[in-house]
Amino acid sequence: MIGSAQAGTGAPFAPPADLAPLSPAYDPWDPIRSLQAYGKHALTSVEFTVTHLCNMRCEHCAVGDSLTMAEAEALPIELMLRRLDEVEHLETISLTGGEPTFSMNTVNRVLIPLLKYARSRGIRTQLNSNVTLDYGRYELIAPHLDVMHISFNYTEAEDFHRIGFARTGREVGAVAAGRMYERMMDNARRLADGGLFVSAESMINYRTHGKMKEIHRLVGEMGCSRHEVHPMYPSSFASGLPVITKRQMLEAVEELLDARRRDMWMLFGTLPFYACGDDPLERRLLGRLAAEPNVTVRNDPDGRNRVNVNLFSGDVYVTDFAAVPPFGNVKTERLDDVFDRWQAHPMQRGLNCHCPAAGCCGPNLLVTDMYYKDVDFTRRSAIV
Ligand code: SF4
């Protein structure tokens, strides 16, 4: 496999040798694993929103509306650690923003303590970053981290300039954006060379669906261990962007599978295709995805095995679907209790299907809202 995120290699950012390597056979973020282990959905994954600050304003940003120019005081880290201690089946933690490394205060007082806590318990971690800032801050984090997750939707600096600053409300020069683009690629390469598992996520959308092969090639050149591919769903900043058809998405995935590097893990997520669907072409694609070596389709953690905690308000969200407001608050409640309440909610129960033969535990709310408004998935089953 490309990338050098192999345990025990002696590289500075390689994970400890006693941790199971992340691989197509071991993806602890996939809710199908906990569903199989416990016979029902269980909270195994906690995501923290650690900042609303960001140096970019990407046109597709799923949390764009919540980005700010100044930040309130975060809740005490001790409260977060206590709430994590209480989660009975905790396996993974994700840290997201904004750009989580935007402020060194966040790096030192939030990210590093949370990552050290996770490592001490053998809990696997992911940081969602644009890696466009100085390498020094990523170098501080990398020894404690399992997955550096970056967004990569570009074939050249001009794409990055056009997409990454679309919503700044001020002019960002092409030269400055070009320097950031080079630094992002250089940072990703250096982290991967140091043994860190770098996973680049690309969106299939109206801009990228014809360019996925070239984007994939650059992801490989950066030394990433994994290329993660999701369709773009129209929420927040993306809500006004043109939408592509399911057929265009299917073609983009087929093309990628034809052209992909066989030595790099490809992870697809939130695809709007299901084994219970009527379209034989879509079912054929699912069969191909299941049969290809080094390719996985991850069930969506949101609302399945994961909650999101806002580090400032303490609010707990069960999904990023706008129609579901915060479901509880860490100041007053255990996370397992909030999660149990969500499991009983009609909105969750309506999508709570599971077809073991297809390794599928149903669509998420964004996908159903966009493509399957009138479909009752609890009455369907996989055609395998
Ligand atoms: S689990 Fe749900 S969405 Fe997946 S194939 Fe079965 S019925 Fe369809």
Task: Explain how this protein is built.
The protein has 384 residues and is of the alpha/beta class. It has one domain (31-347): Aldolase class I (TIM Barrel, Alpha-Beta Barrel), CATH 3.20.20.70. It has helices at 31-38, 77-86, 104-121, 135-141, 157-164, 174-193, 212-221, 246-259, 280-291, 335-343, 346-349, 365-371, and strands at 45-49, 92-96, 124-129, 147-151, 197-204, 226-231, 265-269, 295-298, 306-310, 315-317, 328-329. An 11-stranded mixed sheet has the order 8-7-6-5-4-3-2-1-9-10-11. Strand 6 (226-231), helix 8 (246-259) and strand 7 (265-269) form a beta-alpha-beta unit. The longest helix has 20 residues, at 174-193. The two termini are 30 Å apart. The structure holds iron/sulfur cluster. Iron/sulfur cluster binds at residues 274-276, 353-355, 358, 360-363, 377, 380-382. Residues 274-276, 353-355, 358, 360-363, 377, 380-382 line the site of iron/sulfur cluster. InterPro entries: Aldolase_TIM (IPR013785), rSAM (IPR007197), rSAM_sf (IPR058240), rSAM_YfkAB (IPR031004), YfkB (IPR014866). GO terms for molecular function: 4 iron, 4 sulfur cluster binding; catalytic activity; metal ion binding. This is Radical SAM/CxCxxxxC motif protein YfkAB. Keywords: 4Fe-4S, Iron, Iron-sulfur, Metal-binding, S-adenosyl-L-methionine. Residues 38-267 form the Radical SAM core domain.
